[in-house]
Design a protein that fits this description.
Elements (H helix, E strand, L loop, with lengths): L1 E2 L3 E5 L5 H26 L4 H10 L1 H9 L6 H21 L2 H4 L5 H6 L4 H23 L10 H27 L5 E5 L3 E2 L4 H4 L7 E5 L4 E4 L12 H4 E2 L8 H11 L3 E7 L9 E8 L2 E8 L1 H50 L8 H31 L7 E5 H18 L3 E6 L6 E5 H17 L6 E8 L5 E7 L6 H6 L8 H5 L8 H11 L3 E7 L3 E8 L9
Parallel strand pairs: 12-14
Antiparallel strand pairs: 1-4, 2-3, 5-6, 5-10, 7-8, 8-9, 9-10, 11-13, 14-15, 15-17, 16-17
Helix pairs in contact: 1-2, 1-3, 1-8, 2-8, 3-4, 4-7, 8-13, 12-13, 13-18, 14-15, 15-18
Length: about 550
């Protein structure tokens, strides 16, 4: 019989910041290249436009090069300065609006590093934007104006590429894992020559008879152990209701190996710093008395590391929520200004600028919706999402949500139906905003994956106990078993989601599931490929922490 040593390994699953920086840099280059290809197709590509496109990818190329040393402070500062310089150049040469959108690139890149650099990047971008604004008003930017063709191309491509860059940055941060530990347990192997193998083990090894007497031992065994009663040599803790002899007898009778923490009887004041391994051998048993003091120390260290990892995860989630919240502020300003431009509040706009204003508004609103989902899921993961309960008719909330989603359904040429029990009011005590978000997410998800001419049916019913069931059925592409298994997992999309024209963050069903569980309810989903999907929630009669 031989025994290997206990080993412990740790696999750090957290990617370095450089991998995320390479990803977002590559995505920026692809976005700019796509815009140049579009100009080639439309026949508007010129030498000046090509040079502008090449200049636009300089920060991304620099970031890609510096990604291998992204742990260095100077490299991170260089990356932030490069993106800020691009924004300054674009706003001076093109126009402050909408090219000011590019000032969001530096904070988005800083998200890949550390939280202090996000604040620094935001301050740097704000100062640079303010300097450009006042320089423009005071007439200090002469000589930098781009041609009309370059200006039109940049105003269309710049905001779009920035939105893609920011989404990619948030995905890169969200995809980071946490450090994990893998413990390899002691392995005990049996030799054919058990008699002589006892002398090959450093730990004390004894052969015990059925009566609990020590028959023989290895050279490293306890002095004068032969002939002694095992109960006189080894003791268990006060919480173990058996003696060593009982443990050995049970192993011999059952033929199964046993083990328990123990200590030497002579060390009455010591902890249980040893472990007794029992291996039955017919009418006798071999025991190994292994020292587990180091193992206990390892366990203590691992417990401390696990606690720290949990704190780090909470800090990361709160940080991510904070970044999302800060990004909403400039996005709200961009949406507001573009809305003013769309409404011609200060006079008419040329045709192209009117089109750009619409694009900026729609893109900004889409980005704000994505950030809203990220912020909500971050709050839920951090345990900071608080429900505000009140009494309302869930049927009214459902019909209101259907009215909000109907324009999107009409644009997709999808039929919206309602199957709601109107025989009695369906009053429920829940968070009205959360329930509306659940219905909107289920409906928008169904619209996204239902082809033209398809049908979406929303069903709401209330049982005699007051519990509410809400279901959204569609005739879309459906999901296979593998996709169903990951449905509701944050930041994860099935193959259908990856191919959909309206890409998202993969948080729709995750938010539905989390909000339902916060109410004490459940999330259900059923699907058949090619036939459609039924997703919904079951909500209890009232507040699980209060009165119904």
């Amino acid at each position: 019989m031989a025994m290997t040593d206990t080993t412990l390994t740790k696999a750090d699953m957290r990617p370095l910041p450089g991998s995320g920086l390479r990803l977002v840099s590559f995505i920026w280059i692809v976005a700019v290249a796509a815009a140049l290809i579009a100009s080639v197709i439309s026949g508007t590509l010129t030498g000046a436009l090509l040079m502008t496109g090449l200049a636009a990818i300089v920060p991304a190329v620099l970031s890609f090069i510096l990604s291998s040393v992204s742990d260095k402070e100077w490299a991170r500062v260089a990356v932030l300065l490069a993106w800020t310089a691009l924004a300054v150049t674009a706003t001076l040469a093109i126009a402050f609006l909408p090219m000011a959108f590019l000032f969001l690139c530096a904070p988005a890149a800083a998200v890949l590093f550390k939280r202090e650099m996000v604040i620094e990047a935001m301050v740097l971008s704000a100062l640079a934007a303010g300097a450009v604004w006042y320089a423009s008003r005071w007439g200090l930017t002469g000589g930098l104006e781009a041609s009309a063709a370059v200006s039109d191309w940049a105003q269309a491509a710049g905001p779009a590429a920035t939105i893609v860059f920011m989404v990619a940055s948030m995905f890169a941060v969200a995809g980071r894992g946490e450090p994990q530990s893998v413990n390899a347990a002691p392995v005990v192997a049996d030799d054919d020559g058990a008699g002589h193998a006892l002398t090959d083990i450093a730990a004390p090894v004894l052969r015990i008879g059925e009566d609990g007497q020590v028959l023989s031992g290895s050279e490293s065994s306890l002095p004068d152990a032969t002939g002694s009663d095992i109960n006189d040599l080894i003791a268990f803790g006060s919480g173990i209701n058996m003696t060593p002899r009982d443990l050995i007898s049970a192993a011999i009778i059952s033929g199964a190996d046993r083990s328990l923490p123990c200590r030497l009887s002579a060390e009455n004041d010591s902890d249980l710093d040893k472990k007794l391994f029992v291996f039955p051998r017919g009418d006798s048993a071999d025991i190994i008395l292994a020292d587990i003091a180091d193992e206990r120390a390892h366990i203590s260290r691992l417990e401390a590391q696990g606690e720290q990892a949990g704190k780090d995860a909470d800090s990361k989630t709160l940080f991510f929520a904070g970044v999302s919240h800060e990004l909403r502020t400039p996005l709200n300003a961009i949406i507001g200004f573009s809305d003013m431009m769309r409404s011609r509040l200060f006079g008419p706009l040329p045709g192209k600028y009117s089109e750009y204003a619409d694009l900026i508004h729609d893109s900004g609103q889409h980005m704000l919706d994505l950030i809203g989902d990220v912020l909500d899921i971050s709050k839920i993961e951090a345990g900071k999402y608080e429900l505000s309960y009140d009494d309302f008719d869930i049927a009214d909330v459902t019909r209101s949500a259907m009215k909000m989603i109907r324009p999107a359904a009409d644009a997709a040429e999808v039929i919206l139906d309602a199957d709601i029990d109107d025989s009695r009011p369906m009053m429920i005590r829940a968070d009205r905003r959360a329930v509306r978000q659940i219905v909107l997410n289920l409906l928008s998800n169904a619209v996204k994956f239902t082809p033209k001419g398809g049908r979406i049916t929303t069903k709401v019913a209330k049982d005699k106990n007051g519990a509410v069931t809400l279901r959204v059925e569609d005739t879309g592409s459906g999901m296979n078993e593998a996709e169903l298994a990951i449905a509701g997992t944050p930041y994860v999309q099935g193959e259908g989601g990856k191919k959909a024209q309206a890409r998202g963050t993969g948080l729709g069903l995750s938010l539905v599931k989390s909000l339902a569980e916060l109410h004490g309810g459940t999330f259900t989903i059923e699907s058949t490929p090619g036939e459609g999907t039924t997703a919904g929630i079951n909500l209890p009669a009232g507040d699980p922490d209060g009165d119904s």
